Amino acid sequence: MPTANGQNGTDHSWDSLPNAMSQAVSSLSKLLNNDKQWQAFIDTKAIIEPVTIAIQSSGSDDAILVKVEPGSKTTASTGSSSDADFTLRAHGEQWDKFFAAAPVAPYTSFVGLQGMNIKQEGVGIHGNEVKFAQYGHLATRLLELLREGQNGPMKEDSQPEMEDDYITGKYIYIQAPVWGRTKVFYEKSGKGQQEIVFLHTAGSDSRQYHGVMNDQRMREKCTMIAFDLPAHGRSFPGSNHIPGNHTNNEEAYVGTIKEMVKALKLNKPIICGASMAGQVCVAVAIRADEVGAGGTIPLQGCDYLTMDRQFNDKSPLCNQALFNPDWSKALPVTSVKENEN
User: Fold this and answer.
1) What's the average pLDDT block by block, 10 residues per block, for the chain (341 residues)?
2) Which of 124, 217, 232, 324 holds its CA 20 to 30 A away from the CA of 115?
3) Could you give the 3-state DSSP secondary structure of residue 304?
């Protein structure tokens, strides 16, 4: 599918990714060798054998290849994907949107483009999927550097730092369904009449909401509370916690929200969340009287998701401290894509 390259106005066929990304490919070795994040990832004696990552458009054997070897050595080239341990593959028109200077969901990450557990047509990992799980953080950083090489550094939204912070935090004990008695950390700000409870996304914690909780307009209108789910952030695991077997379901999540509303003596607060938290807001709306909620704001929420659970986050063959953050950061864009469908 021929498209216009936004960087230089030249038509490229994204059916051949090395050709379409020629500008980025020409500087890739330099970018990789000078990138502090890439170097931090490969500076380990735990890489005991070479691994080659390929990025390719579906229907073509032309691929961008990056080989990582013991001794913190990286080599970038182009060639056949058959030389790779695993290949990240998508349709040319999908790569076109993915490598845009300012990509939009779900084209912001490959895990999001793949749809997490929801396999989208033409997008996927081919080859050794265990190796992908082990080196997925490198693949993610490689894609980010390719985008930078094609368009220049990505512009980031700026948020001016404040001289003062208006958030206070403390712990409270609750009896959560499924999870058991738990010491939960929560934060609070504002003195407005409207109470609102913010729920964090999967694998995160309430620090996501520091921007809005410090906003003067929100502090004047609302009393805001945000808490970390049990076994997340600064909250403790529940008394029923089994190491390596944390689970979440509607009863646990809705029940925890209910117990927090009760323990903090909130008066019909609005419950707000995105992604995983947006999904539970739908359940809270249905069970509002039980929870004590006055309303919900379900961002990226829908009534049903079809996805098969994958278990690389529990695999003994993966470094979960590297895999889990890379995997979970694409969860919000998955919800957006599924909700659009």
Assistant:
1) 40 83 94 95 94 95 96 95 95 94 86 66 89 94 95 79 90 96 98 96 90 95 97 95 86 97 97 91 95 92 67 82 78 40 33
2) 232
3) coil
User: What angle is formed at CA 30 by the lines to CA 57 and CA 2, rounded to 5 degrees?
Assistant: 25
Q: What does DSSP assign to residue 318?
A: S
Contacts of residue 221, Cβ cutoff 8 Å, sequence gap at least 6:
190, 192, 193, 194
The architecture (CATH level 2) of 168-307+336-340 comes to 3-Layer(aba) Sandwich (3.40)
- Give every CB contact of residue 179 below 8 A, 6+ residues apart in sequence: 230, 231, 237, 238, 239, 240, 241, 252, 256
253 CA to centre of own chain: 20
What order of strands is seen across the sheet that includes strand 51-57? 73-80, 62-69, 51-57, 86-90, 124-127
Contacts by residues 48-53 (CB-CB < 8 Å, ≥ 24 positions apart) = 51/85, 51/131, 51/134, 51/135, 52/83, 52/84, 52/85, 53/84, 53/85, 53/86, 53/87, 53/88, 53/135, 53/138, 53/139, 53/142
- Packing angle between helix 331-340 and helix 276-286, nearest 10 degrees? 60
Backbone conformation region of residue 252, classed left if phi is above 0, alpha if psi is from -120 to 50, else beta: alpha
| Tokens matching residue 295 | 């309303």
Q: φ, ψ for residue 102 (rounded to 5)?
A: -130, 75
CATH of 2-151, one of 3.40.50.720, 3.40.30.10, 3.30.1050.10, 3.20.20.70: 3.30.1050.10
Positive/negative CA dihedral, 172, 200, 116, 140: negative
DSSP 172-210: EEEEETTTEEEEEEEEEE---SEEEEEEPPTT--GGGGH
HSE of 236 in the Cβ direction (CA atoms, 13 Å)? 15
Rounded to whole angstroms, the Cα distance separating 210 from 221 reads: 16
Helices 276-286 and 250-263: angle between axes, nearest 10 degrees: 70
